[in-house]
Amino acid sequence: MACSTKQPSGQQPSASGSATLAAPPRTRSELVAEADRLAVEGEREDGPQGAKKLDQAARLRRDVWRRWGRRVDALEALELWRISAEKEWDGACEAALQLAVLDAELIRDPSTGYRGLYTAGLAHKQAECRKVIERAKGLLAAFKPADAALAELQGGGSRTATHEPGDPANAQEVQPEISPRASGPVKLGTIESYGSEDAARVVVQVSAPAVFKTGFIPGEGSQGPRFFIDISKASYSGKSSYDVGGIVQRVRLGKQENGTRVVLDLAQSAHRRVFYLPEPFRLVIDISKHAPRVAQRDVARGPVAVRRVVIDPGHGGNDPGAIGGMGLAEKDVTLDIAHRAAPLIARELGISTLLTRDSDVYVPLAERTARANAFRADLFVSVHCNSSESSTGHGVMSFVLASSNDKLASSIAARENSASVAASSELARVLSGIQSATRLESQHFAGLLQRSALSSLGSKYPGLVDRGVKSAGFYVLAGAEMPAVLFETSFISNPTEEARLDSADYRQKLADAIVNAIRAYRDGV
Predict the structure, then answer these.
(1) What is the spatial distance between Cα 491 and Cα 440, in angstroms, rounded to a whole number?
(2) Is residue 247 a contact partner of residue 289, using CB atoms and an 8 Å limit?
(3) Helix (H) or strand (E) holding 95
(4) Quick check: helix, strand or coil at residue 88?
(5) From CA 453, how far away is CA 442, in angstroms rounded?
(6) Distance from C-alpha of 443 to C-alpha of 402, rounded to nearest angstrom
(7) pLDDT in tens, the chain (525 residues)
(8) What is the C-alpha radius of gyration for the chain, rounded to an integer number of angstroms?
(9) Are 251 and 263 in contact (CB under 8 A)?
(10) 313-316: long-range pairs with CB below 8 Å, 24+
(11) Three-class SS of residue 296?
């Protein structure tokens, strides 16, 4: 009696007639390695092919997260989709949708999904893409946030202006609070620019607080997109055009009936943000290819993707910072600590590290954060030495940018800013809204830095005081697009702590503390 053997689905008979077993399931390590390979290739390749590989890497990391439940995989997928969605290719809209869906899935909040879809709709205006977005928003209609919350996504706010790519050329007026002179005539001074292919910062010096409006003009034909700032009652007598290069091609200035218009000629549509620094009064315009971070929610903490870190040695060049009683200069201490920390971060953690200054040179405060944004850093650590009028002040402190009623914190910020306490407090109020997306992570990292410093120093240096994490308006943290902390290592005005800061061992332990805090943050501690 003859009989036949049916092969299981998915298996083919071998030459000898036996079935070939299916390949064993791939491990998480194998899948992550493949995703990393695709991500590296995608970042190196320009155009649609690179964007497609980033999308493929994101899908792999999302699938790995869903299978093994490690939050770091979801965070990597979000980052990869964010980059892919910003590139010009056919799948940009789909990448933006996947980004919104995964973000909502990660924190189990449908309203977050609606916000993500709404933001995607601001960035992607193609008809087919809008249809898909509107359909997806319809499914989440029950979770639609209030109109005021959606308006914030479009850049509402009384003291800052934020715009998404492709928004209409409407202008909004911003009235600085710091001085009643804001209604009087002003003069524009130096125009500073820091440009790269992905991001740029333009700083306009103004003689006094001024009312300003912002607007965007989409590109048409051979004319590229333009972003403008109209400064009321402002006069200008300098050069009419400044070449920048990269995403901002040039800055142009022209007289208007009631003021001066500053125009940024852009290489492409981009995300824009304007804020002001109160004293001396400056307008800061940040331009970026990349979307702002989504505000953190109160979710279970897990590993975080940290690829790039910026260490900012405070002061430098003709700015010595605080000087101790024995003549020790803050600028020398901070640079040495940074030089000790940077190679350890690269060697032990495998993280790319950038120093805002590598020698005894002066770097403007606005340029330091601009460099971090252009580097696309995941963390920014500004290293300083504390100082007070009394020689008894002592301890380790860390600061984040936020408003506060703490008089000591405000006075320290004023010293670091070379400005008044009122101006530093105003800055904290101005930026408390636009940097809310990174505030929670900044506070968390600052706490890790405090603990790490006390652990590193405490066993050998008795009497060290934990002064905790404070909030204040530090100019150097203004406009940071990543979690940012100012680390006051010890009081150089205290004879005991100045002697410690002058020793190689103490500086090395402070550098170790920075490295260990970054490690703990990355690992989700």
Answers:
(1) 26
(2) yes
(3) helix 92-107
(4) coil
(5) 16
(6) 10
(7) 444 433 444 444 444 444 444 456 688 888 888 988 898 888 788 788 999 999 999 999 888 888 888 877 888 888 888 888 878 888 888 888 788 778 777 766 666 667 777 777 666 666 777 676 776 666 666 667 676 666 655 543 334 455 545 444 444 455 554 443 456 899 999 999 988 888 999 999 999 888 888 888 887 777 889 999 999 999 999 888 999 999 999 999 998 888 999 999 999 888 888 888 877 888 999 998 887 665 444 445 678 889 999 999 999 999 999 999 999 999 999 999 999 999 999 999 999 999 999 999 999 888 899 999 889 999 999 999 999 888 999 999 999 887 555 565 556 655 565 656 565 565 555 555 555 557 788 889 999 999 999 999 988 998 899 999 988 778 888 888 899 999 999 999 999 999 999 999 999 999 999 999 999 999 988
(8) 26
(9) yes
(10) 313/337, 313/338, 313/355, 313/356, 313/357, 313/383, 314/382, 314/383, 314/384, 314/385, 314/416, 314/476, 315/384, 316/357, 316/359, 316/360, 316/361, 316/362, 316/363
(11) coil
How far is 196 from 238, CA to CA, in rounded Å? 24
DSSP string, 401-412: ES----HHHHHH
On whether the CB atoms of residues 226 and 265 are closer than 8 A, the answer is: yes
Nearest CA to 285 out of 122, 479, 91, 130 is that of 479
Tokens read off for 1: 């009696």
Task: Tell me how crowded residue 62 is: count the other CB atoms within 10 A of its CB.
Answer: 23
Q: Helix/strand/coil (H, E, C) string of 147-193? A: HHHHHHHCCCCCCCEEECCCCCCCCEEECCCCCHHHHCCEEEEEEEE
- Identity of residue 280: P
User: If we measure between CA atoms, which residue out of 317, 299, 285, 340 comes closest to residue 515?
Assistant: 340
CA distance 14 to 18: 5
Query: What domains does the chain contain, in order, with CATH numbers?
Result: 28-153 (1.25.40), 161-288 (2.60.40.3500), 308-523 (3.40.630.40)
The pTM score is 0.63
DSSP letter, residue 77:
H
Q: How far is CA 192 from CA 36, 195, 256, 359, in A?
A: 38, 10, 21, 22
What order of strands is seen across the sheet that includes strand 271-277? Answer: 161-163, 271-277, 282-288, 199-206, 186-195, 234-235
CA 131, CA 276: separation in Å to the nearest integer?
38
Amino acid (1-letter code) at residue 184:
G
Secondary structure (3-state) at 385: strand
Rounded-to-integer distance, Cα 337 and Cα 355, Å: 11
Comparing CA positions, the residue from 452, 466, 424, 446 lying closest to residue 515 is: 452
Cβ–Cβ < 8 Å for 174, 282: no
Residues in CB range of 373: below 8 A, 6 or more apart: 199, 201, 286, 288, 479, 480, 481, 482
